[in-house]
Amino acid sequence: MTEYRIKIELKSDTLIGSGEGFGALIDSDIVFDELGIPYIPGKRIKGILRESYEEIIGLLSKNVSSSFSPPDDLFGKVGSGKETALVISNLYVKEYEDIRRHLQKLMVQHPEIFNFESVIEAYTSLRQQTAIDSDLGIAREHSLRTIRVLNRGICFFGKIIDSEDILKKDHNKEILALA
After folding, report:
1. How would you write 80-149 as a 3-class SS string?
2. How far apart are CA 159 and CA 161, in angstroms?
3. Are strands 86-88 and 132-133 parallel, antiparallel or unpaired?
4. Among 29, 25, 26, residue whose Cα is nearest residue 14
5. In whole angstroms, what is the distance from residue 174 CA to residue 19 CA?
6. pLDDT, tens digit, for every residue of 129-146?
């Protein structure tokens, strides 16, 4: 078993969507824990890596005669119930556990300052967009959308755990690095 550390730094404001909104105010919202601290779900990263891995081996297999592990060997097969070779943890902000511990105390001591909404606001911004009618050059009716984005510059940290050392076989590590 081998562990690899992951760091993702947001170079621009980013929507890591939860697939949900926030009441009538926000149409697309980010993923955050019960205190309001954002995180990136590991399965989201795994899905993106799988898709990129598939594209790369598709391109390389046309041009290079080499053996590649099938994506199911690394990332698993949906619905199989079998544990996968690669386990990707959720990615959290730096010093996540310390931040949580301090916030929990502050939320009890000063709830008017430190609360769920104030924590979210510290990490995010709101963006609004609307669709434009190309014939009329004006906003389409009922098309205004509000999204919450993570502010650029936030770093997230997590791990890839290679439980079967599958990345040491074939060219898997190199291809995953390209992905």
Report:
1. CCCCCCEEECCEEECCHHHHHHHHHHHHHHCCCCCCHHHHHHHHEEEEEECCEECCCCEECCCCCEEEEE
2. 6
3. unpaired
4. 29
5. 32
6. 888 888 888 888 877 888
Q: Give me the residues paired with residue 157 across strands.
A: 7, 92
Average pLDDT, the chain: 86
- In three-state secondary structure terms, 179 is coil
* Residue 66, C-beta contacts closer than 8 angstroms, at least 6 positions apart: 60, 170, 171
CA distances from 47 to 82, 109, 143, 164, 172 (A): 17, 40, 30, 19, 16
- 39 - beta bridge partners? 92
Residues 6+ apart with CB under 8 A from 122: none
pTM score = 0.82
Q: How confident is the model at residue 21 (pLDDT cuts 50, 70, 90)?
A: low
Specify which residues 158 forms β-bridges with.
6
Among the listed residues 88, 69, 87, 83, the one whose alpha carbon sits nearest the alpha carbon of residue 172: 69
Place of tokens 């601290």: 37
Structure tokens, 81: 């119930």
Inter-CA distances, 74 with 6, 7, 60, 81, 108, Å: 17, 20, 17, 14, 44
